[in-house]
């Protein structure tokens, strides 16, 4: 297995969008302003290909083997997330003419794992763990002491993986009215 992690590019949007959608579910509708699956996926592709939002290729990394994308992770710090969400809210308000609110997902001083997902046919190969280790390396390289993520309260398998990797639940969190655990790892 020759797995590598690299910065995503705009050309990866077709492969990344379904993984983001699988990982974030209903949040994707909020971020794209769309309701139908096809429109949500198209909206996610547009977000990936632009530079002013949290799911931009600039903040996304992909795990690949011989150029086949097997997983992805979106990383940024809490303050950057707040700034990026401000841009996206303005864009959505202009496009749809209504008020949009995007929930804060991290504290300013944290390096944040927004989204992580492994392709269904690549699960069980350690790719999720590889991506988490990559996130930790990035956090250290950039000078952060805390790496954080949110996990839905019912996703017990994911929470167990994060706990095995050293994350601890620090507080309850709410995103689009749904309960999450905010988990932090000291790095």
From TrEMBL:
Query: Which Pfam families does the record match to this protein?
Result: Acetyltransf_1 (PF00583)
Which Gene Ontology terms cover its molecular function? acyltransferase activity, transferring groups other than amino-acyl groups
Q: N-acetyltransferase domain location, by residue?
A: 3-187
Q: Where do the TM regions start and end? A: none
Q: Which CDD domains match?
A: NAT_SF
Q: Which UniProt keywords apply?
A: Acyltransferase, Transferase
Recall the taxonomic lineage recorded for the source organism: Bacteria, Bacillati, Bacillota, Bacilli, Bacillales
**Species of provenance:** Lysinibacillus odysseyi 34hs-1 = NBRC 100172
Q: What is this protein called?
A: Acetyltransferase
Q: Which InterPro entries match?
A: Acyl_CoA_acyltransferase, Bact_Acetyltransf, GNAT_dom
* Keyword Transferase (UniProt): yes
Carries keyword Transferase? yes
């Amino acid at each position: 297995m020759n797995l590598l992690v690299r910065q995503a590019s705009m050309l990866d949007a077709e492969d990344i969008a379904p993984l983001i959608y699988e990982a974030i579910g209903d949040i994707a509708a909020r971020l794209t302003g769309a309701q139908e699956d096809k429109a949500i996926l198209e909206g996610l592709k547009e977000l990936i290909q632009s530079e002013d939002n949290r799911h931009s290729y600039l903040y996304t990394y992909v795990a690949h083997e011989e150029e086949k994308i097997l997983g992805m992770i979106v990383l940024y710090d809490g303050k950057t997330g707040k700034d990026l969400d401000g841009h996206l809210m303005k864009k959505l308000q202009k496009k749809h003419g209504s008020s949009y609110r995007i929930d804060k997902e991290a504290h300013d001083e944290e390096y944040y794992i927004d989204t992580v997902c492994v392709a269904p046919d690549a699960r069980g190969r350690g790719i999720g763990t590889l991506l988490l280790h990559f996130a930790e390396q990035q956090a250290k390289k950039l000078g952060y002491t805390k790496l954080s993520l949110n996990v839905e309260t019912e996703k017990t398998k994911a929470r167990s993986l994060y706990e095995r990797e050293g994350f601890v639940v620090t507080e309850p969190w709410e995103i689009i009215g749904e309960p999450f655990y905010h988990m932090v790892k000291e790095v």
